[in-house]
Design brief:
The chain is of the alpha+beta class and 323 residues long. It contains 12 helices and 10 strands. β3 and β4 form a beta hairpin. The mean pLDDT is 91. It binds 3,4-dihydroxyphenylalanine (DAH). 3,4-dihydroxyphenylalanine binds next to β9 and β10.
Length: 323
């Protein structure tokens, strides 16, 4: 009987998983109503000889079990599993926080800026809210000129202002304040009062280019723009100029680039019109230059094979996280 109790409790103590469980076992064994306590109490009913013999064994077992409880208790209060909660493994890899990144249009803009900067162009900007003077008049598009129909304009009610329809007004703004020779590009946001579809949005980005010097010719333009596309598309590209009309240039071109066997229309360009030079105070007999304007989204769409311009403004992370 006594040995059975001893073995049972030794086993229980060994299997105790935490301090609470151990204390419960201790109570069942040595508590006021514990199994061993009961036996010790019942000894008084035994006869002298038996009481002495059993008493010795029972007390011996009591001591052993008490020691075992004590030992195990120390392990819970002092030992590794307890301390492990305070451990720091300095060699463990950390949890990387989510990091933001630049918008694809910003990336493309930066790339364009870098390429032109490497060819001596400065990056310039201008206001998104423009005057009629800079958006049209200074660019050889006087009031009531039919060419104004080329740009569906957002006019600001009751103010003599509009949302710029292109980045070209910065040509006039810059030339007014700076003397030639000059080389600038002007990336920026533009607005048109148009229905949206896969290739049109009411807001979009353009970048304008302008180079003015004593002998700047269309040949210089072709050389520079070819070099730009070569670096931008990271491959040799064929460029073709087709005659076109823009009021602020003469002659005007449409610039096409050959990609995968197809000619794609990419930008408008031309030789700066003498009236534009006159408007900003340059003598057209002394200076000549080229200008061009291209859609940033269109270039990004061709480069990354994106088929809908609205994706750029959708804030859709499935799209944005690819850049
Ligand atoms: N501003 C024109 C547009 O938005 C694009 C353009 C064409 C710009 C010819 C130029 C240019 O500088 O020379 O449609």
């Amino acid at each position: 009987m006594l040995n059975k109790i001893k073995e049972k409790f030794i086993k229980d103590i060994r299997q105790a998983k935490d301090l609470k469980e151990l204390e419960e076992i201790c109570r069942c064994c040595l508590g006021r109503k514990g199994e061993l306590t009961k036996i010790l109490r019942s000894l008084k009913d035994l006869s002298g000889e038996e009481r002495k013999e059993k008493g010795q064994i029972a007390n011996q077992i009591k001591k052993e079990l008490e020691n075992l409880f004590q030992e195990k208790k120390l392990r819970f209060t002092n030992d590794l599993p307890h301390r492990q909660t305070n451990w720091i493994d300095v060699t463990a890899p950390g949890i990387l926080p989510d990091q933001g990144h630049l918008h694809p249009l910003t990336l493309v803009q930066k790339e364009i800026e870098e390429i032109f900067q490497s060819m001596g162009f400065s990056v310039v900007d201008g206001p998104e809210v423009e005057t009629e003077q800079y958006n049209f008049n200074a660019l050889n598009v006087p009031k009531d000129h039919p060419a104004r129909d080329l740009w569906d304009t957002f006019w600001l009610k009751d103010l003599d202002l509009l949302l710029r329809t292109h980045t070209s007004p910065v040509q006039a703004r810059y030339m007014e304040k700076n003397n030639p020779p000059l080389r600038i590009i002007v990336p920026g946001r533009c607005f048109r009062h148009e229905a949206t579809d896969a290739t049109h949005d009411v807001q979009f980005y353009q970048f304008e280019g302008l180079m003015v010097g004593k002998k700047v010719s269309a040949v210089n333009f072709k050389g520079i723009i070819e070099e730009f596309f070569k670096q931008f598309f990271k491959s040799d590209v064929k460029v073709r100029l087709r005659p076109s009309y823009f009021p602020f240039v003469e002659p005007g071109f449409e610039v096409d680039v050959k990609r995968n066997g197809d000619w794609l229309e990419i930008m408008g360009a031309g030789m700066v019109h003498p009236n534009v030079f006159k408007e900003v105070g340059y003598n057209p007999n002394n200076w000549q230059g080229f200008a061009f304007g291209a859609g940033l989204e269109r270039l990004a769409m061709i480069k990354y094979q994106i088929d809908d311009i609205r994706l750029f403004y959708s804030s859709d992370l499935r799209f944005l996280n690819q850049f």
